Predict the 3D structure of the following.
Amino acid sequence: MFDASQAKRRQGPRGHFDLPLLIALVGLASIGVVMVASSSISVADSQHIGAFYYLKRHLVFLGLGTVLAGMAMRTELKFFEKRAFLLLLIAFIMLLAVFVPHLGMRINGARRWLNLVVTSFQPVEAVKLILVAYIASYLVRHRESVETRFLGLIKPIMVAGLIVLFLLAQPDFGSATLMIAVTIAMVWLGGARPLFLFLMGLPLMPLLAIAATSESYRMKRLTSFMDPWKDPFNDGFQLTQSLMAIGRGEWSGVGLGSSVLKLSYLPEAHTDFILAVIGEELGLAGIVAVMGLFALAVGRGLYLGLKGVEIGQRFAGYVAFGLSLMLGLQAMVSIGVNLGALPTKGLTLPLISSGGSSVLLTCAMAGVLLRATFEINRALDARQQNQRMPAAAVADAHAAVAATREREREAVTA
């Protein structure tokens, strides 16, 4: 666990959390609170559960998520590194548990939630963090094998593939695609040869294509994505409403709280399509601000991850890589769906969309990411201190020689 006294010693290396990353994450969460309040009022009112029901719920989970983030920021990453395999086993148990009668919940035809009596929990949100920790641990333990051998890639790809199979059985095609993308990216950043990754990915491509076209609703998503205006009141309804909302916002938006499309026209206005409400109320300026904050957070995470690998903090570096990619790719998919650049995937906008377990675990991931920056910065400070020590030792030696000569001159004079 984190030792506060060690970090505060004047003579020892002192770590610090990356300030630009922290500002970006807090900024995204703050925008989320405002936009959940704006986008969910009409939804809650139509369900007769109180106009601010979803806002209050979002604030509760955001508060709990902040506590989790604080705990993660005070926990040494060695805790996750040493227990990576145990955490992976827990992840598989949770993914299997959704198929257990009475424990798993079926909502809108999908088994993605666990019934915890007082609330529901989506295991895939925890699995995202666990997968990153496991892959990072594997890359540290099998560095040479990953960099030089084709067989060194089989185990992490197989683990990710097994998780994907469980997700497709739920079904959750969006999260499955995200897991594969992050795994391949982490292994590549870990030093794997691009040719090996290409050969490893060849059999996955037809499998993902079959999964994408095997269900009729997925095919409808693809066809409606290509031309949503062909059937704007049925298959293309979500996308056309989203595009109309963003179009109404123009450059500066119609004003906070003044969205029309959120009034029972735009489906999932407070979750999957919250960016469309941002575009309508805050305009292109609001969308660019959100994208800028995500770019800052992901960019700082990747930059510090690279620094961590360079100075030998490989686990912290790979964790920073993985969590930054998980955050960035999910945001990119959600933004792409809202803008009509990608088919509908059912992924929320991290730290902004209303949610329960998604908000909770995204905050936890943010806390682990910040912890990784702390440990990387602490190692950088230690390295700088070690580089300064020889110069200081030479200066001390010169001072000692000068003092000795001064004493000798004084003795001769006396």
Summary: The first helix runs from residue 4 to 8. The longest strand covers residues 110-115.
